Structure prediction request, 268 residues.
Amino acid sequence: MHESFRPRRSALFLPASNGRAIEKARGLAADVVILDLEDAVAAEAKAGAREAAVAAADEGFGARQCVIRVNADDPYDLAAAAASKADSVLAPKVRNAADVARYRAALGGKPLWVMIETCEAIGRLQDIADAGAAGLVLGGNDLALELGARPGAERAWLAPVQAMMLAAARSRGAIALDGVCNDFSDDARLRVECDAAAAMGYDGKSLIHPRQIDICNAAFSPGEADIAWASKVRDAFAGSDGGVIQVEGKMVEALHLVQAERILGMAK
Prediction:
């Protein structure tokens, strides 16, 4: 599969200390499995979780992408994750380009994803993307805490941050994932969050419970109408000499062909 079209609609966080959950994940429809060594693991269990994460990453998750989220600036986590067969490493609370450079140096070439969850990071999003972060993952909970935002279902305060983070990621061809929906029992709220992020252009969303996967996958997948439009645009350009053409009475140009090819690639 071409990397540009690799689906990352659903990125499921799993405590690396929970062997049963890890084994179950191999049969789930999540596109990405994030083995968490940070928030989801108690301090006394971190060493064992590190070993379990490496073992799970080395065994693999089939077509699913495997990511290990390390503890901030933990040299043991970084060394273990760098040596593992994980596809990428996710670093928490990254604040600036210097943080990105430090993590990348420790990982020796393995792709680095970063959590955007601090006030400083919001002001340095372009620097973070320029420094070579391969993926940006929104951390709404920690960011809300730093900002002093009121808890609740309303995420209007987050929309400007989402837009800025997405723009920075896209400017350097990086992955962009929306943050988790805390209430995994509220399907309606999850759909609203997924639909908004998908409409904005995000690749997918990070999740905290398997029951959220299907809703997330549906929201970030091309719909039948999208695929039909993309097929017509592709076919119309194949029979033209390029430039601006009409499809169903509407003007389309080369940029629409790029959009169409991406939709068809994702659908495939």
